[in-house]
């Protein structure tokens, strides 16, 4: 097991802190340095009664209908670190450690629950209800990393957002608590953050922690105090102050700037972990306007470009951001798992590697290329802003 959960960060900004009646969502996904994330789209679909869906480790019952989703995911697994669906719901996952060790037995992992929540929930609350019902039925457990030598297990936290509200959901095993957010700026990371403001919870949560001797019932119930390993569960809000300083002007660009900030630690670049992909989503509270989702699909947002996606009819797949498929020969599917590591790099990832090497070998050419790419990103942001503000 690695010493700590990877330091990923998720943010949401609601009016009056955000611009133009927009909800702005962002996440940096910190994962093992050499892991590849791909961006994939799955259309809405109807499913036959009794059909199953094969998740990363286990097979579960399929539902009659799944929503269209766009996902950023480690390319070896079924679920996703973060993504959005056609109804303007966004979900991101955080790996957390609690005083209760996470199970090594293969079940659903947090990233499976991200995708399942998006495929089955048309609102943030519906997605939350999907996730906690699946936790109750199937539990969570299994290796979070493509590593055959060790099993890295975590509990899960989620930021679930739609046009009207957000939910912070934190779990330990099948037990959970959630807080509803409708205004201001909120940040979550790889540490528990829920305290005494709990708007929904597992019906047996308090009885369970009493039975474990973790809470005597005499004091206010504080979720993170009860479940955290140490007293550092509130020290994870890097970047929140940067967004709050924007006043009422948090925009897609402001969120991108925060995700690129290495000095604050939001943009992770350490010996073990790297921000391997990022997302920013802009959700107009007016349902007549489309939601816009920006993905990097490549590591290190300070050296990556955010590219826009909008749900439309007949979405065209982009093979350049999809990793090669190995089918049943994939070492992630064979038992024992992860005995080999295939080359999962997609075309955009390889191009990004080339651009990074240019930056390192020829500073002038590298900086010129970066300016060109940032100019293209700016044009994309301006074009999307025009769509979102047009009357």
Automatic annotation (TrEMBL):
Q: Which domain of life is it from?
A: Eukaryota
Q: Which GO terms describe its molecular function?
A: cysteine-type exopeptidase activity; dipeptidase activity
One GO BP annotation is:
proteolysis
Q: Which family does it belong to?
A: Belongs to the peptidase C69 family. Secernin subfamily.
Q: What is this protein called?
A: Secernin-1
Organism source for this protein?
Answer: Pelecanus crispus (Dalmatian pelican)
The uppermost taxa in this organism's lineage are: Eukaryota, Metazoa, Chordata, Craniata, Vertebrata
């Amino acid at each position: 097991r690695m010493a700590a959960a990877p330091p990923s960060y998720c943010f949401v900004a609601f009016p009056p802190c955000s611009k133009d009646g927009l909800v702005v969502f962002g996440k940096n996904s910190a994962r093992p340095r050499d892991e590849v994330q791909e961006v994939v789209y799955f259309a809405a679909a109807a499913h036959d009664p009794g059909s199953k869906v094969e998740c990363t480790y286990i097979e579960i019952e399929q539902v009659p209908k799944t929503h269209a989703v766009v996902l950023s995911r480690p390319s070896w697994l079924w679920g996703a670190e973060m993504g959005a669906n056609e109804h303007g719901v966004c979900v991101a996952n955080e790996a957390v450690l609690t005083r209760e060790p996470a199970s090594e037995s293969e079940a659903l992992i947090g990233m499976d629950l991200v995708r399942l929540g998006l495929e089955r929930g048309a609102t943030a609350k519906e997605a939350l209800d999907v996730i906690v019902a699946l936790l109750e039925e199937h539990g969570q457990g299994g290796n979070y990393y493509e590593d055959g030598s060790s099993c890295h297990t975590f509990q899960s936290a989620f930021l679930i957002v739609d046009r009207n509200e957000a939910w912070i959901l934190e779990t330990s095993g099948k037990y959970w608590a959630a807080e509803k957010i409708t205004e201001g700026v909120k940040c979550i990371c790889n540490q528990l953050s829920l305290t005494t403001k709990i708007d929904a919870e597992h019906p047996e949560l308090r009885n369970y922690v009493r039975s474990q001797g973790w809470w005597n019932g005499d004091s206010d119930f504080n979720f993170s105090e009860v479940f955290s390993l140490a007293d550092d569960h509130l020290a994870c809000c890097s970047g929140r102050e940067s967004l709050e300083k924007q006043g009422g002007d948090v925009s897609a660009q402001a969120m991108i700037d925060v995700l690129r900030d290495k000095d604050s630690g939001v943009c992770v670049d350490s010996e073990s972990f790297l921000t391997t992909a990022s997302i920013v989503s802009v959700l107009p509270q007016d349902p007549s306007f489309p939601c816009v989702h920006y993905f990097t699909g490549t590591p290190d947002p300070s050296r990556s470009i955010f590219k826009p996606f909008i749900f439309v009819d007949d979405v065209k797949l982009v093979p350049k951001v999809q990793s090669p498929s190995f089918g049943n020969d994939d070492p992630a599917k064979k038992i024992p798992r992860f005995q080999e590591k295939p080359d999962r790099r997609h075309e955009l990832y390889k191009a990004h590697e080339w651009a990074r090497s240019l930056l390192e070998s020829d500073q002038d050419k590298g900086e010129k290329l970066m300016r060109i790419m940032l100019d293209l990103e700016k044009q994309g942001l301006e074009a999307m802003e025009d769509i979102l503000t047009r009357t």
